[in-house]
Hints:
The complex is a heterodimer.
Chain A: E1 20-23, H1 24-33, E2 40-41, H2 50-58, E3 64-68, H3 78-91, E4 102-104, H4 109-114, H5 117-131, E5 135-139, H6 142-147, H7 151-159, E6 165-169, H8 181-195, E7 206-211, H9 217-229, E8 233-238, H10 243-247, E9 254-257, H11 264-274, E10 278-279, H12 287-300, H13 304-329, E11 333-337, H14 340-352, E12 356-362, H15 367-379, E13 384-387, H16 392-402, E14 406-409, H17 412-416, E15 421-422, H18 433-449, H19 452-460, E16 478-479
Parallel strand pairs in A: 3-4, 3-5, 5-6, 7-8, 7-9, 9-10, 11-12, 11-14, 12-13, 14-15
Antiparallel strand pairs in A: 1-13, 2-16
Helix pairs in contact in A: 1-15, 2-8, 5-7, 9-18, 12-13, 13-18, 14-15
Chain B: E1 5-6, H1 17-22, E2 26-31, H2 36-39, H3 62-67, H4 70-83, E3 88-93, H5 95-100, H6 104-109, E4 118-122, H7 130-144, E5 156-160, H8 170-183, E6 187-189, H9 198-203, E7 209-213, H10 219-229, E8 233-236, H11 242-257, H12 261-281, H13 283-287, E9 295-300, H14 302-314, E10 319-320, E11 323-325, H15 331-341, E12 352-354, H16 358-367, E13 375-378, H17 381-388, E14 392-395, H18 412-428
Helix pairs in contact in B: 7-10, 11-12, 11-18
Amino acid sequence: MAEVIYSGVRESRPGRVNDLGTTGRQVEQDFKKGCLKRADRSFAQGLQCQQINSMAALMSLEDSVFVSHSPQGCVGCSIMAVDMYRVGQAHRGIKNIKNPRIIVTNIDQKSVVFGGEEKLRESVKLAVERYHPKLIFVYASCASGIIGDDIDAITADLQKEFDSVIVPIHCEGFKSKICASGFDAAFIAINKYILKKEKREKEKGLVNLFAPTTVSYADQLEMERMLKAIDIKVNYIPFYSSLEKIKRIPAAEASTSICKVFADEFMKTLWEDYEIPYSHTVMPIGIRNTDKWFRGIAKVLGKEDEVEEIIQKEHERIEPLVKKIRSKLQGKRVFICGGTGRSFAAAALIDDFGMELVGLETPTYDEDAQVDIEYLNNIHKDYVVDIANMQPFEQVNLVNKLKPDAFIGVPEWAAKLGIPTTHVLDGKRPTMGYDGLLYLGNKIAEQLQNPGFNKKLAQHVKLPYKDSWYDEDAFKYIEK
Amino acid sequence: MAKLLDKQRYKCALGAMQTVQAITRAIPILHSGPGCAQKLSDSIGSSGYFSPNIFPCTSINEKDVVFGGVKKLETTIENSLKVIDADLYVVLTGCIPEIVGDDTGEVVSHFEDAKKPVIYASTAGFKGNNYKGHEQVIDAIIEQYLEKSDEKEEGLVNIWADVPYQDLFWLGNIRELEKLLEEIGLKPNTIFGYQRGIENIKKIPKAQFNLLVSPWVSVGNMKKMERKLGIPYLHYPTLPIGAYETSKFLREVGKFAGVDDITIQKVIDEHENYYYYLIERYADMFLETRVMAKQFSVVADAQYALAITKFLVNDLGLVPAKQFVTDDTPKQFQENIRKEFENLNYGLKAEVAFETDGYKIHNEIKEHDYHGYPLILGSYYEKELTEELFGHYLNISWPVQDKVVLDDFYVGYTGGIRLIEDIYSVAVQRWN
Lengths: 480, 432
């Protein structure tokens, strides 16, 4: 059989489903029996597309230009990226804060008929003329994909002319409903166009630490502090890194990632192409997950004993502080909604505070999720599981029925039901590691201490659904 | 349409989902790829009753690209009507269905008898920007929802201004325009914002005339309403900011509406007296702000570039450097807009560039001698530039990151005062 090359589309992995309404117990069994089938919704709300993730993954790379080969709306949200990038620079003490450099080729009616090749060529040419960057990333879009522009061939041709490394990325939005596919698309391109399977001499103690944009600088410092404690030199990528740091990837002795769906596939590739072992565990949020994450990378490097010593010290330091927070949160019922990594991490985290899980909303279910669910099922009686990428209509239906004491995740809709809310996707403040836990715990406790804003909001505003919707089965529109 | 965009200052036509969102209880249904709603949203007051993540969306996938997405659209509309509590459902098409040729109009026609109106607008991203998309949505309302009315309401005036959400101050501005018209005895009707919506849309055909306050956006909509609904229109190209322009505006609107001069003059006097009472109190600051150059540039859509230029020249006595219009103004309107820039007091003329390429704009600003620290009013992209030049910077156009606006506004007499407050708040924070 010919070797199957991973396409970057996360749905292509067997056993991974997107749309499902179930419970913790049920899904564990169904997965074991192999009964989970991919479904779809006959009514759904907007998702995030993978192009956003491809862009976010590489946004802060030093000396790069983004060329979005798309109509003008595909970079409509660039202000969020601009903000993230600028805040990240400020946190890192950079004085002359820069904007990211984003050019959109502006596919128009003519390009739809005759192709957009000329526009792409001109944009890349201008990117070089204007900014002389080391790197140019060319992003495909729904439109460029459908009209059939061959961005690989065009950029390969342009590459002959220019010194900047030109990297085309196949992140057409319609190809995947799982936006994390965009991360994979970016890494596939990095491997193909920058690393090129060329091996490098190993650097002793060097570890690739993969981190997405949503990891704050405080979290970066915490992760680096922990790894330094077991004598690891960190190659922190791709956020706020550079072409040089990317080129250093093959020199590492091991790899690990902060997020479960970020570089997980890429780390497999790094093992296959460069024999770099890796640790793929969980997102280091909460004591249990942080331990697990920490032990994972230590094991790869044969530092099991050292890590236990440090974990013990950290526990001694952190546990009395966690206990204080626990006294405020014990027994509170929680609904969690987040991305693949964060939702499960948050679900594990609440155990540190003795909270009870009543509902979990997460975008995909697969082998990895099964491991987490088995763990959660040992702690919590039973809870609703909604495999959904957002879908706020399902969420409010469930939250309204379950009436949790607290909601962790995208806060907007639960807040309008008067539930105290805390976001765990905090790209600007700490969330991770032992110290991040305290920050998060205090944030949840303070929200519970004064739920006034959400309560008042709920009294004065109404969510945009018909009253009848709340009586319906939340999973009514999932069609198998 | 503009060529490539470097530092883009608008979105695509599907961005008109925000125009729909601004109509209270109207919801866009997106027939588009999976990420469009998120990409076209931003955090400038868009988490209202309907927010982008709420918008129903067909999230077209690979299979739909091959086989068409009409079936998915049909169930999405059908179920939206069941689940979402709205007064008006506006189906908007993105790039994919328009490239693969889905007949959206045909699908929407199946809902003619639905309890709530369902209309559609063609807003593919490759067809134009969100200024155009905005016009498409209003055209859709005119074509598919409104009927000509024989009955007219005396003094009723529909007011149209620039694009909601694209314009940071849209809500405050339109409310203030309403107030000004009320003061001269007219009955304003608008469709955007709090307590406006489907009932106001229904009133449109009864108006005595349409008032368009915009350099070019919606001129086509006005013509369409004139043809189909028999409503004449007054096109006032300058968003009136400050005393000079607002008084001129009131006189012109009053004349068109047949309001007598005395009534108009009384309203003007009252406002101007208070306006100059405020200005006088701070005159020392305006006269002696040593750190601010007299020259300024605005980098914004035609609306703000023109309005702020007129205000700073005619009311505050500043001198225009080059001004930059970044909204991809269609060619046929450029000449008239240019003339407006050349029609300033004391024979002053402002040079204006219709330029969508942020890189070129930044280079021109860097090369110009502002005779001191420049005042740059523009988008968030101009922050980095102005910092480089040690200038004064105010974020007044999209994209916005530096300013939170709930219902603040720059239009009218009060709006002029607000803009002065904002500019001088920047000035006094530095080197004073």
